[in-house]
């Protein structure tokens, strides 16, 4: 036993020594971007990066410029910070920058789902068919019905018109959007009350998983937290099992189509359950947090709230029944569109990653060329390089509800950097091959929620002077940002007119 322990210890020491040595030996080659390995062997800058990605990258950009390579936990990431240079990465005409390899590893780790070669194409094909055009219109109506059902029963009891209720804004938005989205996509049984109870149960467990998610991705959980993640994964695999879905009448065509594809590919039922968990997370992990930012921005900016309500009154008419609207009006609300686009500019912080297959040259907008090393990962962080660029968006930290409106009220799409028109002036949904396929549904879901809240409810902050909370620094890079703390508000269903 002693010999075996000694041998194992020596082997581990040798492995650690080799890994550290490889990191120490790496040197910047001719034409490669500036290399910053950090002071800690192998770990590099991992601690500072995970603590506050935004501040870390802002510091690195000031130190190295628009492109640099950093070591993070034994891996090397090349960040491109100039949005005018994003084109070659997002288009990738040579097909040497691979998104699917990273995505496969992530979904296997987080959801337990082993993806197929054709999954990416299948997902985009299904989304084009069912989340655009007529398919999207039909799902919008289902989403409206689900939101109406959940909002009328938001505290486990039927809301009474004229009565004030109090809640935390983030919790309220997340809960409402999650439950409505889950029911719209995964269907109802014949017992609506039971469906609402199950959706509430799912949300409580989903929130537990969500709080562990950033450190789970970085493998920073403690022993008990790893056990909890395992329990939560098994819980969702069971609750979202394809057998459970057989009892439901109205599973969305989008989900049903993708499950049918998996069955045709011979994917086992247990793996389909894990696919459902992945789709629940993908569809519901960001809409609630984004709606929180939209609602608190409107509550803190009365002129924006007034503009949204005035537009709604013009489009919907003054006299209407509660929760009664035609979903087609979503196409005729430019002020609300601008509010949501500004909200996502301030609140969405995705990281776009591509694994480099084979050494490749990249040409920056400045004309300089850099060599990307095979095996490294190219990364874009649009929140810092685009959304917070004062050249593209003057006063970038300020909420301006009409930032994306022209003087004549039409949508503004002309933005510039260094005098050049820029195509990617916001990137809340990613871009290129990794763009969110469900973005139109997610946006409409949030717009419906904000429209219902602003037109059918009286709203006010419990403390009008409370500031908008800061972003939780540990959530940078994981889709929509979340606040460091919640904010109390009151809401009251208006009397029928």
UniProtKB/TrEMBL annotation:
Record-linked Gene3D superfamilies: Cytochrome P450 (1.10.630.10)
Cellular compartments per GO CC: endoplasmic reticulum membrane
The protein's required cofactor(s) are namely: heme
Q: Which UniProt keywords apply?
A: Endoplasmic reticulum, Heme, Iron, Lipid biosynthesis, Lipid metabolism, Membrane, Metal-binding, Transmembrane, Transmembrane helix
Q: How does this protein sit in the membrane?
A: Single-pass membrane protein
Is the Membrane keyword given for this protein?
A: yes
Q: Which residues cross the membrane?
A: 6-25
One molecular function GO term is: heme binding
The superkingdom listed in its UniProt entry is Eukaryota
Biological process, per Gene Ontology: lipid metabolic process
Keyword Protein transport found: no
Its chief place of residence is endoplasmic reticulum
Residues holding heme: 436
Q: Which Pfam families match?
A: p450
Residue ranges the record marks as coiled coil = none
Quote the subcellular location field of this record: Endoplasmic reticulum membrane
**InterPro entries annotated for this entry?**
Cyt_P450, Cyt_P450_CYP7A1-type, Cyt_P450_E_grp-IV, Cyt_P450_sf
Where along the chain is substrate bound? 109, 286
Q: Which PANTHER family match?
A: 7-ALPHA-HYDROXYCHOLEST-4-EN-3-ONE 12-ALPHA-HYDROXYLASE, PTHR24306
The family annotation for this protein states:
Belongs to the cytochrome P450 family.
**Identification of the protein by name:** 7-alpha-hydroxycholest-4-en-3-one 12-alpha-hydroxylase
Write down the species.
Galemys pyrenaicus
């Amino acid at each position: 036993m002693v010999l075996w322990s000694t041998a194992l210890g020596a082997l581990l020491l040798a492995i650690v020594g080799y890994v550290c040595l490889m990191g120490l030996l790496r040197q910047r080659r001719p034409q490669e971007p500036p290399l910053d390995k950090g002071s800690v062997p192998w770990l590099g800058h991992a601690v500072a990066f995970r603590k506050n990605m935004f501040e870390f990258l802002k510091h690195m950009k000031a130190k190295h410029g628009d492109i640099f390579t950093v070591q993070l936990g034994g891996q090397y990431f090349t960040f491109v910070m100039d949005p005018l240079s994003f084109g070659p990465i997002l288009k990738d005409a040579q097909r040497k920058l691979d998104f699917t390899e990273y995505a496969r590893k992530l979904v296997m780790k987080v959801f337990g789902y082993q993806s197929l070669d054709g999954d990416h194409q299948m997902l985009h094909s299904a989304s084009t068919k069912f989340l655009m055009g007529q398919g999207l219109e039909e799902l919008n109506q289902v989403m409206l019905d689900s939101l109406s059902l959940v909002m009328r029963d938001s505290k486990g009891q039927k809301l009474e018109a004229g009565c004030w209720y109090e809640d935390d804004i983030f919790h309220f938005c997340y809960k409402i959007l999650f439950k409505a989205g889950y029911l719209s996509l995964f269907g109802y049984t014949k017992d609506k009350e039971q469906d609402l109870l199950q959706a509430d149960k799912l949300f409580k467990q989903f929130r537990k998983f969500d709080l562990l998610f950033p450190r789970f991705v970085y493998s920073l959980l403690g022993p008990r937290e790893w056990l909890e993640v395992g329990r939560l994964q098994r819980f969702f695999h069971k609750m979202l099992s394809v057998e459970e879905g057989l009892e439901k009448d109205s599973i969305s065509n989008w989900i049903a189509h993708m499950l049918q594809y998996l069955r045709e590919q011979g994917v086992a039922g247990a793996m389909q359950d894990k696919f459902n968990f992945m789709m629940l997370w993908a569809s519901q992990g960001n809409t609630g947090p984004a709606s929180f930012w939209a609602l608190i921005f409107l509550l803190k900016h009365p002129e924006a709230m007034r503009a949204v309500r005035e537009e709604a009154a013009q489009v919907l008419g003054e006299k209407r029944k509660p929760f009664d609207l035609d979903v087609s009006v979503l196409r005729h609300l430019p002020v609300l569109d601008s509010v949501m686009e500004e909200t996502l500019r301030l609140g969405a912080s995705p990281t776009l990653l591509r694994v480099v297959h084979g050494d490749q040259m990249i040409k920056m907008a400045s004309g300089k060329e850099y060599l990307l090393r095979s095996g490294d990962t190219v990364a874009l962080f649009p929140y810092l390089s685009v959304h917070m660029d004062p050249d593209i968006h003057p006063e970038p930290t300020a909420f301006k509800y009409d930032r994306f409106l022209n003087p004549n009220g039409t949508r503004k799409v002309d933005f510039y950097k260094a005098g050049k028109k820029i195509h990617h002036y916001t990137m809340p949904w990613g871009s290129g091959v990794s763009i969110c396929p469900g973005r139109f549904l997610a946006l409409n879901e949030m717009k419906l929620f904000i429209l219902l809240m602003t037109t059918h409810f009286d709203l006010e902050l419990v403390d009008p002077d409370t500031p908008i909370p800061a972003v939780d620094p540990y959530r940078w890079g994981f889709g929509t940002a979340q606040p460091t703390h919640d904010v109390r508000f009151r809401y009251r269903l208006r009397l029928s007119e």
